[in-house]
């Protein structure tokens, strides 16, 4: 993504019915295709492409990859399905948020033929072949079109962004609370749901696998509470967004080894779970629930 490696993960589940979880950005689509080819998955082989949610760092490449893999069914939560078929509104709102940076960061999502899209409800299932399934569980909070997916064969849980952003270099975990959908209550409920599923491993979209499930999910919930508490304080004190961001950034700095590390690692963290986006999302939620 945007020339960085190790930022957005896509996971290939091999088996009778190969399944790709997350596509990454549109600009990453050729990279994903080459990676799949190197693993022996050709144009006719991929059975399913599923995305945890439709944000452009997770689903931006769906349209391009649907073109590369004509047999693949595209699976997404029902609240996101129409945006994959017609990304114009999604792209327009992303353009408003990111401006010219959009082209470098994400590229343009291509539309996917509506007939190839299967929409998931509160729960759903992807057939991985040989009796193995990937079960989806609606998990809003980060985004209203978010699902987690658990593999019956391995107990791997694909958490998308619902448990925050994990940085493997440092073991840091930070919440992902962007506007306009962030909601603390549903975000905490989704983390509790993930715990209840009893996964063996968490597979973060940003970035990589984590074995220590219980401790990590507890950390996810704690991070949310810390950021919400601090943002609430800043907001009640009447600070504008810039001042609130500066205050929350300062007061959380010592929590993250990444911000003590080299500039590149700190930059990576900011790109994926930037303080401005997190604080703006929390304020947006505060204004909605406590006007
Ligand atoms: Zn993301």
Automatic annotation (TrEMBL):
<dbReference type="InterPro" id="IPR001279">
    <property type="entry name" value="Metallo-B-lactamas"/>
</dbReference>
<dbReference type="InterPro" id="IPR037482">
    <property type="entry name" value="ST1585_MBL-fold"/>
</dbReference>
<dbReference type="InterPro" id="IPR036866">
    <property type="entry name" value="RibonucZ/Hydroxyglut_hydro"/>
</dbReference>
<feature type="domain" description="Metallo-beta-lactamase">
    <location>
        <begin position="7"/>
        <end position="206"/>
    </location>
</feature>
<dbReference type="Pfam" id="PF00753">
    <property type="entry name" value="Lactamase_B"/>
</dbReference>
<protein>
    <submittedName>
        <fullName>MBL fold metallo-hydrolase</fullName>
    </submittedName>
</protein>
<dbReference type="InterPro" id="IPR050855">
    <property type="entry name" value="NDM-1-like"/>
</dbReference>
